[in-house]
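Hello,

Following up on my earlier ticket. Below are the two sequence lines again, exactly as submitted.
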Amino acid sequence: MHESILVYGKLRYLKVALALAALSAVAYVLHTPLGPPNGATWLGYTLGGISGGLMVWLAWFGIKKRTYGAGRLSAQEWLSAHVYLGTALAFVATLHAGFRFGANIHTVLYVLMMIVIISGMVGVYFYLRYPRLLTENRRGLSSEVMLAQLADLDREIRQLAMGLDDATNTLALNAIRDTIVGGSLANQLRGFDPHCPTTVARMFVERSSFESTSEQDAKRRQLLMRLVRKEEMLKRIRRDVQLRCVLRVWLYVHVPFSIAALMALVAHVVTEFYYW
Amino acid sequence: MRSLIRHITRKSRGGFAVREQTAESEALVAGRGNDCAIHLPDPRVLLHHAELVLRGGDLYVNALPNADVRINGNLITGGRFALGDILQIGPYEIKREEVGSEVRSDDAAPASYDCVLAVEMVQPLGDDLIDLVERSRIHITRIGLPLRTWCWIFALAVALLLFAAPFALNLFYQAVDVHGLTALHKQPPASPTRIWTSGAISSSHKFFGVACETCHQIPFIPVRDGACLNCHDGIQQHAMGSRFPYAAFTGTSCADCHKEHRGEISITLNDQAFCISCHRTLVEKTGHTELRDASDFGTDHPQFRPTVVTDTALHLMDRSRAIGDVPPPTENNGLIFPHARHLRSAGVRDPVRGIVNLQCEDCHTPTADGFSMKTPTFEKNCHGCHQLKFDALVPDRELMHGNVQDVFKQVRDIYDAVAMRGGYSEPTAPDLVRRRPGTTLTEPQKQIVARWAATKSEAVINGRFGKGLCSDCHVLTESGGPANSAKPDPADTLPWDVKPVEMSPRYLPKAEFTHAKHRDVACSTCHSSKNSMSASDVLIPGVAVCQSCHGGEKSNDRVPSTCITCHRFHRSDLRAMHPSGTNAAETGRWDNHEEAIHKEQEEQAR
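Thanks for your patience. The regenerated structure is below:
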């Protein structure tokens, strides 16, 4: 039975994260430092140590997930802990900062960390929602199969169009040669091509007359049928590309920013004590 | 259904190879899957693509879900598969052949098949697919830079911009003597590392706050006191370390209390908790303090004990009694001044203005800093009404205010002059004194008038308009003349004197009350002077009056007031906390310094 990472182990890591956040909040409220709350009190250093440790541990997931199944914890358990403790980090780190922000590298670290956490939350949302949409859209076909089917349709279109008038043939040929699936990041994410040559060809053939019952028109009908089918197939493939792109694109924010945040963490700790 | 499936492979040189397979089942499934009776290993075919069933001798095709199945080029979901029809499944063509046409190597077995199917791959994956794949980028990894490269770029950018670049630039940064620059009214150059700041600098330190090295002199070493003492050299102690060693703050650095980088708030530590950590139980802790314990201004603050003058001649002060004690603290300041009489609603008579209603501010004006009130003086505040005229026949002369002996001499001089001039019209005076002014006197006559002048001046000085006039406002001493008289002749001295006047400079010297901040509050709100009949009354209010507006640090319904709202940590009456230019905590000179002060104070007391 598939178990979502969010409910893994009867919400074990949600409980751990909530306990950590609650403990930090209680300590923060009860702690009455001399002067305003800040990162340089004993509680500030404690919360900072926890936050820094969490950041390193969360980043360790990037290495851990490559050795799938190794170690005591399953990949799913790791991910569940990664998600919940990452969310708790936002809370603990804010308390460590004592809600004080400014134009300095420490706030840069905070911003980088929050970008990583928020992009991670977006990633969780994507991972919970899109695989199902992806499966539904594919209807059992892999993307390679869909492309191969598209190629077959292209071949058939070429053969059918060869026997038709030049205008139809040219448009059909364009539909074969110039139709692009995916492309730039924007195109992949858009999920459709507003200037798709296949659509142009289909609309052209659709508008042409089908009055006679000549052999030409029979071919024309066959061509139209294949163009329509190709359009449907393109729609599915482009949706497939879109969904797979969305499933990966947040990682291009999450991972580089997490590395940047780790670097900023080192700078934060070193400079904080450099100018003690 | 018993079927023969013949897989035909055409060879490039012409001719073909046939692989035969027998299947026996209810229905034949065609698909990519290995479990399919008609196995079609091509990506364009679904795992289970189509199903063939025999019904009433006829073969029917059913397209399985999502499958693209055609018979003779027509897309179908199901239909009859007649002899000679071509069934298209992906790149394969399946022809139904007549039973009996099969070529069998093993003639012994009977040819009893229900159907014979010829399967042929007719559309191998061609150039169209390769072209399509080549011009389509269907995976995010094929866009731009790989994830790993982005990670490197981000990591290096952060390391370079936030750390390496400021650090490298800082190697060329020359720390400067801020103290010297201040004298020149110049700002120090900004450090490249100022983006490492943990928060904005407080307002008073802003002008050198851009130069990190001003305070952070050695990397990885917390700010040392020397940096602070560059400017704050004379900052005083909190208590005498020799008497209160725990209040010496030995080993405590300036920065332990004065936290910088907190933005636009004062770096003075104003937490009540810090003060009451000692002052809550100070009496028990020290055993020898005169201070009372306090833990919160609103709820736990001792009654005020004003410092009052008890003896003006000996300069004795006392602060043993608190407001509200019985008997109350009284100030023996040498004056007779009933506030009530001056402030009565019927008014007082001014020789020039007539009846006037005096107000507090007629006599009490704030000092220039607004901190306290100026001490009223006779000349400014009393003389308007209390003129010191002593003789209606000498209307243009007044007694000098000041030293009584000088006044005596002044009066004697006046009557000497009057006697010499004559024309003094008092009936009891000798004729010589009453004579027409300007007439010259003989030597014996001069002696007569001089004797009169001496008697008259003594009578005036000791009478209603002399001693009596003084005693309106001053306490007089009757003890055989002033001790410090410069006059060698005892005849010229008086048997009474005015008691020296001394008013307490500050009733509560350990607190700082600013009148300026309370200027919109009527005087009578705190000072009940309208009922005071004696100058010995101490008219400063009790703590309850302050508490009616001011509460403790965490007060919700009063002005939140911490200890240092009124009290100072560094006491201006003590010596410098750190001996000049050195860090006492480091040098250990602290106690020696304290000892010296204490000895000095003891000697003074002796």
